[in-house]
Structure formats: C-alpha cells, structure tokens
Write a structure and sequence with these properties.
The complex is a heterodimer.
Chain A lengths: L3 E4 L2 E5 L4 E7 L6 E6 L5 E7 L5 E4 L2 E6 L4 E6 L8 E8 L9 E3 L3 E6 L1
Parallel strand pairs in A: 2-11
Antiparallel strand pairs in A: 1-3, 3-8, 4-5, 4-9, 6-7, 7-8, 9-10, 9-11
Chain B lengths: L4 E3 L2 E4 L5 E6 L6 E7 L6 E7 L2 E4 L8 E4 L6 E5 L8 E8 L7 E2 L3 E5 L1
Parallel strand pairs in B: 2-11
Antiparallel strand pairs in B: 1-3, 3-8, 4-5, 4-9, 5-6, 7-8, 9-10, 9-11
Classes of the chains: A mainly beta, B mainly beta.
Chain lengths: 114, 113
Amino acid sequence: ELKVEQNPLFLSMQEGKNYTIYCNYSTTSDRLYWYRQDPGKSLESLFVLLSNGAVKQEGRLMASLDTKARLSTLHITAAVHDLSATYFCAVDMNYGGSQGNLIFGKGTKLSVKP
Amino acid sequence: EAGVAQSPRYKIIEKRQSVAFWCNPISGHATLYWYQQILGQGPKLLIQFQNNGVVDDSQLPKDRFSAERLKGVDSTLKIQPAKLEDSAVYLCASSEDWVDTQYFGPGTRLTVL
C-alpha cells in the first residue's frame, strides 16, 4: 500500500524566512503533485513533477523530486503572509499503469507571521 | 474557462437520512473523480470515472455510497443511509485524461447529526 508522509504537519514561520516541507512516499512513482488549500476553499494545483530531478519554481515556491529517494521538497523563500495555507503533496499510485489514483499526504499547515 | 462546479455547497442531515451531491466537470474533461476529505486530512479517492465508465471504486463503501456519471459529463454521488462518520467535505475533480492534472471543485461540506 502506498503511503505518503509529509513533515512537518504544522509550520509557523516569520515573514522573510526560508523553510522546506518534505514529502516522502513508500513505493515507486514518477508523478507527484503539490496542491495548496486555503481555509474553507478547494485545492489549487501548484506543481506537477514528472521525472527524477525535476524542479519547478513559481514565485517564492520551488518544488523538486528525487524518485530514487522517493522524496519531494517544497521550498519557501522569503515567506510572506499570503503564503499561509495548507500544502498537500499527492503521489500518483498507478502512474505507468492504467489509472490516475492520487494518494495525498495529510498536509502541512503553514502560518506566516509578521 | 469555467471550473468544476459542485452543489450544494453545504448540507446538514440526520443519520440514516439520504443525501446526493452533484458535480459538473470542466468542459471536455474525460476523467472525473470524487474524493472525501475528513477534517485535518488529505483527500481520499472514492471513485474515478473515465467518460461514463468506472475505472476505480475500490475505496467506495458500496453498501451505502453510489455514484453515476450518465452521458459522460455530470456526476452524482449518493449516500444512503448516512452515518456520523460520513461528515466530511466531498470534492469533485476532473482532468482531461487520467494522466493530466486534476482540477478540484469547491466541495460540498456534509454534516451528519
């Protein structure tokens, strides 16, 4: 059974600081997603990482994927309050097969304080 | 481009009652998903449709949950009878095909009393 673990689950940061969220998964997959969810809102797609060594950046967020280590990271640079949200990683359990079953981590609740 | 539409946004029912949720995916998206998100957790896939056929319903509690996607467009998810532990947000998502990014709707927040 594929398991997806995120850490930390809660993160309180000061504005201007850098931090990294980690996403580990238990079986082979070459497709990983990062989503953002604001309180009471739905999920917004941030990044899709499709191969080993893939790196994507958007604004203050940068995501990377190491399929050999089964690890993805979401790095936050110079955090601002607008980044406060819950961030989920999701791994495609059947990539390379016939389905698109995503297994989500529990999420990292990020709070950026002045 | 219009996003994934869901209704209702909120629903409160008593246990043992029935409830139905509706989803209209992004136009042209062949794949439709229903997820259950319990407070404090990540979404869990309930059922996946490709056009109007079921691809994966392995995590759907079939004794009480049912879903259909007639004509390969809109979909409904039904719970009958509801239990307290069904209280959650039910999210619908769609993608162009199963390999593509999933786009999520606003969700329906269900409270079972």
